[in-house]
Specification:
With 550 residues, the protein is of the alpha/beta class. The protein contains 18 helices and 14 strands. Helix 8 runs parallel beside helix 9 and helix 17 packs parallel to helix 18.
Length: 550
């Protein structure tokens, strides 16, 4: 690899523009413009058909987009037909503006105007490339000649709009802005605005596309700030950004550009688009949401949005895609699971005003995600916290802390052996198999109790390794009496060190569960659980299970 064949292709503003660094977050939502149906669609291996485009358009309006770029109508009959269908079938809500793209070429602009005839709210987006590389290599034109192309295109938009008796809004992009000298880009944009003379009731849009990323995001922010500070008619101009993702910084470019003074973002759902894609509006919007800023877009039905998007585009959303990926809320690490579980309990107990659960920047339920399926995930890396959380929240089992630890190790071992993730139902079955349904070698077949002033006497009929014994013993309670009887019968050596019980709220019957922990002479613990309508019966079953696990 020869790095010497490359050089920096961006240009810094002629003056220092770093005021944006004084801000630390985006304070309000920008104007959002989805370009999924144009930029996103043209990047697909198999472009969407007419019906897919219509359904995608409906999805975008449902999410809350008020400006949607619907295509490049002069590019193909498919594009043209789609736009005409939206208009003629009255599929565009009254509060939604459609945007169409056109090069600054007369015949293309005229075709574009034919396509949008009859639409209520329209933005005509005209562009021409202004970068040094394009001027020298593609068009072989001077700065003056490139500026003239932009001005003629702007004038034609104005003339055709007046001829049509319409009130279309205009947008201009100095395409390849990031490879253009900022002062020259400013000159071209101001010349275009001098033609349009935007008013407060009909603002013009100046779009600053990151057609190709050449720089770190802070450089782009400085370029944006320079334009914002020096553009003519600023109060009547909407500064828009259209970042692509060549350096992996599309979201960062958008966010820093907003700090620098921009008013509007053009992007796509999940970052689809040419080459490495466009800025991901889902991420940008939910980044705001996570800091308490209303994004004015609704992603509360994220699973449905993802499914429809994948169906329309044939694209697969990456499992790690922020906020939307299948695994972005998943915690496999034991320490992470423990922190999340404790954080969730803290939220329930304290009911604080704000969400601050460790490792979860936003509440997954806000996006329609499920804690059991999406957050605490169990594999060989997991620990007691995650296993305990699943058993508690999904199955109503509140294990003693040390028993959680034992169950955690059990689940880790099984997951490691099987080389797979364990589903909640598999964890529950593993718990029952390990700690509840252990019926050998010790079995208690019958119990009878007599109460006295000194406690309880238990008579038990039992088998150990198929050896039956009926024996009596006393204790300070039913469980203690049974325990003493078993020690007397078989010479067991242990101490009951933990006893815990609770009702099974998840059960349809009035059942209770008991947990028993016994300590063996070597100091190690063994655990058992018992479930029954009668709590004494449940506790005895738990003791038997613990002895069988010793």
């Amino acid at each position: 690899m020869n790095y010497r064949k490359y050089k920096r292709q961006y240009f810094l503003p002629p003056v220092k523009c770093m005021d944006w660094t004084e801000k630390d977050y985006v304070e309000k939502a920008p104007v959002w413009c989805s370009v999924d149906l144009r930029d996103g669609n043209q990047a697909l291996v198999i472009p969407m058909n007419l019906q897919q485009k219509i359904e995608f358009f409906k999805l975008l309006t449902k999410i809350g987009f008020k400006e949607i770029e619907v295509g490049f109508p002069a590019a193909s009959e498919t594009e043209y037909t789609f736009i005409r269908t939206l208009i003629e079938e009255n599929l565009i809500p009254d509060d939604v503006t459609i945007q169409v793209l056109t090069q600054a070429r007369e015949h293309i602009i005229k075709k574009t105007f034919e396509a949008v005839k009859g639409a209520k709210n329209v933005i005509i987006h005209v562009y021409n490339s202004t970068s040094l590389a394009q001027r020298e290599q593609v068009f072989k034109k001077s700065k003056e000649e490139i500026l003239e192309i932009a001005v003629k295109g702007a004038q034609l938009l104005k003339d055709l709009t007046e001829q049509a008796g319409e009130n279309y809004r205009f947008e201009y992009s100095p395409e390849s802005f990031t490879g253009t000298e900022p002062e020259y880009a400013l000159e071209v944009c101001n010349a275009v605005l001098d033609v349009w003379k935007p008013q407060s009731d009909r603002k013009a849009i100046i779009n600053l596309p990151v057609t190709v990323q050449h720089s770190m995001p802070h450089v782009y922010a400085s370029q944006v700030e320079y334009i914002c500070k020096n553009i003519k008619y600023r109060e009547n101009v909407v500064i828009s950004l259209h970042p692509h993702n060549d350096r992996g910084c599309g979201v960062a470019d958008a966010e820093m550009g907003l700090l620098a003074g921009a008013d509007r973002i053009e992007g796509t759902l999940f970052g689809n688009g040419e080459r490495t894609g466009n800025a991901d509006i889902v991420t940008i919007a939910l980044n705001m949401y996570a800091q308490g800023v209303c994004p004015e877009l609704d992603f509360s039905e994220m699973t449905e949005i993802c499914e429809k998007y994948e169906g329309f585009t044939g694209m697969k959303i990456n499992e790690r895609s922020p906020y939307s990926g299948e695994l972005v809320f998943a915690a496999f690490s034991g320490s992470h699971q423990d922190a999340i579980a404790k954080g969730m309990h803290w939220q329930e107990e304290k009911q604080p005003e704000h969400w601050t659960v460790p490792y979860l920047p936003i509440d997954p339920s806000d996006l329609g995600r499920n804690y059991d399926a999406d957050v605490i995930r169990i594999n060989s890396q997991s620990g007691k916290g995650g296993v305990g959380y699943i058993l508690e929240t999904k199955f109503g089992l509140n294990l003693p802390p040390k028993m959680r630890e034992a169950m955690g190790y059990t689940a880790k071992a099984v997951s490691d052996h099987r080389q797979k993730e364990l589903l909640p139902e598999e964890i529950f079955e593993l718990f029952k198999k390990t700690f509840e349904n252990t019926s050998s070698p010790l079995v208690i077949e019958e119990t009878h109790f007599e109460k006295s002033e000194n406690g309880v006497t238990a008579e038990i009929k039992t088998r150990f390794n198929q050896k039956p014994i009926t024996i009596k013993a006393s204790g300070n309670g039913s469980l203690n009496a049974v325990s003493n009887a078993l020690k007397k019968a078989y010479g067991f050596q242990y101490e009951v060190v933990t006893y815990q019980e609770h009702a099974l709220e998840k059960s349809s019957h009035a059942r209770a569960i008991a947990y028993v922990g016994i300590q063996k002479p070597d100091g190690t613990l063994a655990w058992g659980a018992g479930v029954h309508e009668d709590i004494i019966h449940a506790s005895i079953d738990a003791l038997v299970a613990a002895i069988n696990n010793r």
